[in-house]
Design brief:
The chain is mostly helical and about 400 residues long. The protein has a domain at about 15-40 and about 275-380: Peroxidase, domain 2. About 40% of the residues lie in helices and about 5% in strands. It contains 14 helices and 5 strands. It has helices spanning about 15-40, 45-55, 125-140, 145-155, 190-205, 210-225, 260-270, 275-280, 300-305, 310-315, 340-345, 350-355, 360-370, 375-385; strands at about 110, 115, 235, 285-290, 325. Strands 1-2-3 form a 3-stranded antiparallel beta sheet. The longest helix is centred in the N-terminal third of the chain and has 25 residues, at about 15-40. It binds protoporphyrin IX containing FE (HEM).
Length: about 400
Amino acid sequence: MNHHKTGKKFHARGSMAFGFHHLIKGTQKVVGAFARGVTGHNVPQTAEQQQHQNIEQQQPHTKEENAPQNAEQHVPQTAEQQQPQANEQHVPQDAEQQVPQTAEEHVEPEVLGGLREGFYQKTCPQAEEIIRNGLVRAMQNNSKIVAAIPRLFFHDCFVNGCDGSILLDTTPSGAEIEKSAGQNGITVKGYELIDEIKLELEKNCPGIVSCSDILAYLSRDAFVASGLPHYEVSGGRRDGMESLEANVADNIPVPDDSVDLMIELFNRKGLNAEDLVVLIGAHSIGVAHCFNFLYRMDDPEKAKMVDPRLGNVMRFTCTNQMSTLAFDAATQYKMDSVYYKQLLMNRGLLESDQVLAQDIRTRGLVQLFNNDEIGWFDKFGKAMNKLGAVEVLTGNQGQIRKQCRAVNA
Ligand code: HEM
């Protein structure tokens, strides 16, 4: 086994978070089958149509079309694909003060954690297209898949790095796998889509595209389908050969985590407080189950942090703990800065989201991204590449799995 990972041993989490998820895990075992049924319904037609339009309009460029070594050569194909440049160093003060960068200042390094843009250009040039088409097909039956995929990717990357270990159904030692952990369980979905895409890739380019890279490209496509401008994704991850439930609890943030703890968890992965606030904007799409936020209304101190109208919606909608509510009900299927506005109005569903709008270290960023959606979009793609480079296996490390649920025999 070739597992060159570092920084995997961390202190135990606060007992509150642990106890809470212990409880959740018990609940999942009882109601898991029901929950899958619940989360598949209620698909607004218009949102679906909008998503399909977005993903078809924003076809990712291949390396050949759009050599990103030199920013001057980068000519966006359509108006939609043009991404305004944000100021890398901007201090969270006022969106109006931002000075757009020139193309020269915006050149991105080719290598991040040993990964490369256009990684499959020679070995499997159709890889990104196959992945994107898989998402488009899946969206026809289930528009919620779009939000499920980035969460799957995040939970993969924060546990043992972005190595596809969350996808494994068994681990060689026979121990409990990541999927069994409370933070994953029924609320992490999308495994079947990964299987379908992997099958298609194996038909076209056997043994070439890793499961971990599928997750990285597919997450980008999911965000683009939700309105985020296209961003290039670096590839070259290889798949891990171990998946352990024991690694999950200390690495995945939970809804009652403090800002301190979230920043610490992100720091351990090489991400900073700004990356945290940028990436938490992923909650602009998707839903949360009531067991992840309804407890706030039972505690008078915590309930004070909830906008009374949202509190009423929580109580009304949460007929049981397995009901779901959209993070951003107004634009549930759209990546936009409305989510940050909601936080500033105490309408964040999760306590862990809401505290980011309160804390002195992060509030300015929440305000900034609320005022500057384009700047946030730009930072989002970059932060996703940082997330996607966490503790990756490259070169001869790990393996390219033949199927994503099992290590190669
Ligand atoms: C930093 C702390 C974070 C915490 C505490 C957190 C927690 C959660 C929780 C509790 C849910 C609801 C799960 C459910 O009830 O079904 C959720 C959903 C989601 N999370 Fe996060 N998350 C965090 C960061 C992130 C990041 C960094 C991303 C992606 C880059 C992400 C993407 C998502 C998405 C897209 C959903 C919606 C899933 C769906 O609708 O199926 N989250 N998150």
